[in-house]
Amino acid sequence: MTLIQLTTSSSRKIAARLLRMLLRDWRVVFALTVFVAIGCAALVSPFITDTMTATDTGRLLRGPGPGHLLGTDNLGRDIGARLVGGAVVTVQVVAIAVGAALVVGTVLGLLAGYLGGWVDAVVMRTVDGLIAFPLLVLALTIVAALGPGVNNALIAIAVVITPQFARLVRGEVLSLRTRDWVAAARIVGVPTPVLLYRHVLPHLAGTLLVFTALQASTAVVAEGALSFLGLGVQAPDPSWGAMVASGTNYLSSNWALSVFPGLALFLTIAAFNLLADALRDVFDTHRTN
Amino acid sequence: MTGFILRRVVQLVIVLAIVSVALFLLLRLLPGDPTTTILGTEATHEQREILRAELGLDQPLIVQFGQWILSVFNGDLGESWITGEPVSAVMSDRLPVTVQLGVMSLLGALLIGVPAGVLAAVRRRSTLDTALTGAGVFFLAIPNFFLGPLLVLLFALSLGWAPPSGFVNFTDDPIANLIHMVLPAVTVGSMVVAVVMRQARGAMLDSLGGDYIRTAKATGLSRGRVVMVYALRNALLPVITVTGLQVGALLSGTIVTETIFTLPGMGSLIVNSIFSRDLPVVQGAVLLIVVAVLLINLVTDLIYAWLDPRIVYDAA
User: Fold this and answer.
1) Beta-bridge mates of residue A72
2) What value of ipTM does the predicted structure carry?
3) What would the pLDDT profile of B102-158 be if each residue is shown by its tens digit?
4) Residues of the domain holding B47
5) B14 and B65 share a domain?
6) Quick check: B18 and A126 CB within 8 A?
């Protein structure tokens, strides 16, 4: 067995052991259950768009019961169906906005930390400027500039979160770049992109995983808040934040309208927070609470 | 210490410069014609051109930015495009509401969060610890735009203990003012309580494990004195930093909360101005919030440096 085979087989063993450790943790199981439910809802929702927008004018603001399992909203639309539809936005927020922020922020952080000089100065001063804004205030300002709507909300959330990733990665890279193996790779003449990808990035995996889970939780809250304020997802498309908002006008006639979408958001956010805690325990990276 | 303060102030000025450029550019890139916002769609081309010149919108961007910054330094944030009132006057009516909401929720968060964290740490792994930690997880995960309606449903509509929304000036009726502010303050403060408690618990566990605690116990000091004087004093340092860093999140919370409870504060001002495309008001209000957050962070750092004699900042 060659050395390379040996290291890959042992790293696979480590990965398998980490995975087993994680799957025994109730927090991970809870998070995965919530994610699977949201994923299934998002997959089903294209097939029930008619149910989502159909108005049952004879039954406005009904509580949970037969016919409409979770009740109806102020236009007589089925709350359950709209709840399923709202999952799509949540998936978009995590997959598109957080995904983009993760990639762009990591690349910027890697370059700033490794290259230093004016690249570092430009990236980090921009990051400082953006981080100075309270999160929702910046997101609101961006939506104010671009106009309300789900795409602009996704852009705003990505822009708000990207500097967080850039700052984290840059800090890690600053300490990694002085390590022996990085110096060795540089001396042998490994091109910078390859060096960053192969010899620096893998060491950030654990930290980034924990941080991504935390940022996903932040992003879901931010989208919910934007849609709650009427600046995110626009009617008649369903979004949990917008549903909570419309329900606040009818709290005394039908509590279900606010409570079910609010619970969906709560479970999603809790899932990401608990997942981050569990991952942190396993990877024992920086305490970023 | 003087060197440290000076360095921090210079940093603050640099960040502020970047923030103001970003804020200016972001809102100048706004699609749509601001003259439509002010004059409506019926105005003639000439009327629009006159207004454009009046607002300085016909000047190059860099000149516009220079004029804006100059007037900001003179305390002139421009005039609302909708009402024509000076932005600073609009904000001075709104600011006290947000400040009161922020102070009430922050004080509440500290008064509840610190003792809860200390209790959880002292009774580590007890049922109480589990319950408090569980409550922390709950309050960290519940978005304030959901907690607000829940509180209204429970305490205003079902129990009738507090009004569901509205605002009374403190100077008009202090009691009514406080009653109206309780639910909003709980809504804003819930997340901060969770963060403070988590931090206080962690910091207490760290300091309770220290050698000096064992020594203090060995000298026969009472348990209460060891916990409250020896351990808590050291544990409070990180709590201060974390609380200072929460001010940004707290202000984000006031935006949503003021909308829920129809409070006439800065948050609802920003949201309403975004809807009416009243750009100078959005710009002024956001700038004020960012300046406030930066100043509070600076003060937090200074308090931290002042409280912890081990920190020598001038050496760096």
Assistant:
1) A78
2) 0.87
3) 999 999 999 999 999 999 999 988 999 999 999 999 999 999 999 999 999 999 888
4) 2-73
5) yes
6) yes
